[in-house]
Amino acid sequence: MQRFAQIVGVGGFLPDRIMTNQDLERLVDTSDEWIRTRTGIRERRIVAEGETTSDLAARAAEVALLRSGVAPDDVDLLLLGTTSPDHLMPSTACRTQTKLGLTCPAVDIMAACTSFIYALHHGAAAIESGRADTVLVIGAEALTRLIDFTDRTTCVLFGDGAGAVVLRAADSPGVRAIVLGADGTGSDHLIVPAGGAARPIDHDALDAHDQFLKMNGSEVFKFAVRVIPRATLEALDASGYTVDDLAWLVPHQANERIIATVEERLGIDDERVYLNLANTGNTSAASIPLALDDLYTSQRLGPGDLIALVGFGAGLTWGAAVVTWTITSPEEGA
Ligand code: UT7
């Protein structure tokens, strides 16, 4: 019998501290009006002193595991998508594994903001091939630690958070098609120049703030509006569905204007396109599972709903997944 991967649990976690656009007005030459009209973002969450990506990952994963009813011992594989690992070595997945009390293999997937879709792909493939029965897939970021809070072109965009799903083997979908893409010719458009083996941090790097994220915003914008509709249509086509069949399109939450352009190109009405970036900012690898957690907890997703998840980011990378939702949201207050 054909094996499929179903999402049997979802969880999210946001750090407590809120940074508003007004807070940013006090740090750089920007305005609430500019940030809202150019991006749609009003506020974002910021990790506390000492709080790490693996802390956020573990909190989101605990919720997902609890809701799934899966015993920790039953998790066969932990995949963690991130752009802001606790350290270059060891993996953030290993640090998360131990915080969760798990003993399964654990590895990071680094495809920037597309990391969650890449991790979902690898997790579903492990289940479909019979190499695993249960996979924990996490997207987690303390990305503000890599942000230069003197650079107004980037510091207004990003926020911290984590989301997770538990995948389990089933005899019906679940995860349907997933398409992935990468184009390394665009690798300089979104980059943390120093701190890796290509350029260890030295005084020159620190003087140039090269330990922080640098971005060519307009190139990334053009890339996003090109690849998101294409990848979504490819994944829908590969699963035998069309845009009309979707209950929700869940795009990476980077910029409201990018998402509006995508809506237009796909011909999808905005009631079926999920947006929460006003309150989270761009949480990179965490944005799609955090959006799923929101949809689940607000009871806007039900069994049988067809959803498309689509991400893009540094690399450049992109990916889209078409999924049939299989879990029932809890009653309000339950
Ligand atoms: O997960 C993937 C991550 N990245 C993205 O998704 C980013 C994609 N790109 C974008 O979202 C947009 O390109 C941005 C929001 C980053 C920028 O919006 P834009 O409409 O492309 O603005 P721009 O870069 O063309 O800048 C317009 C003006 C410039 O001033 P001049 O040259 O016209 O005088 C900027 O210096 O806005 C200025 N500007 C700002 N002004 C106030 C740039 N950042 C700010 C700011 N506050 N924070």
Protein described:
The chain has 334 residues and is of the alpha/beta class. The protein has two domains: 169 residues, 3-Layer(aba) Sandwich (Peroxisomal Thiolase, Chain A, domain 1); 150 residues, Thiolase/Chalcone synthase (Peroxisomal Thiolase, Chain A, domain 1, 3-Layer(aba) Sandwich). 33% of the residues lie in helices and 23% in strands. It contains eleven helices and 13 strands. It has a five-stranded mixed β-sheet, sandwiched between helices. Strand 12 and strand 13 form a beta hairpin. The structure holds oxa(dethia)-CoA. Oxa(dethia)-CoA binds next to helix 2, helix 6 and helix 8.
Features:
single chain; 33% helix; 5-stranded mixed beta sheet; Peroxisomal Thiolase, Chain A, domain 1; alpha/beta; 11 helices; 23% strand; binds oxa(dethia)-CoA; 334 residues; globular; 4-stranded mixed beta sheet; 13 strands; 2 domains
What topology emerges from the helices and strands here?
Blueprint (H helix, E strand, L loop, with lengths): L3 E10 L3 E4 H5 L6 H8 L3 E4 L6 H16 L8 E5 L10 H9 L5 E4 L5 H14 L5 E8 L10 H4 L5 E10 L4 E8 L7 E2 L11 H5 L6 E2 L1 H23 L8 E4 L4 H11 L10 H4 L6 H11 L8 E8 L3 E8 L10
Parallel strand pairs: 4-5, 4-6, 11-12
Antiparallel strand pairs: 1-7, 2-3, 6-7, 8-13, 9-10, 12-13
Helix pairs in contact: 3-4, 8-9
The chain binds oxa(dethia)-CoA (UT7).
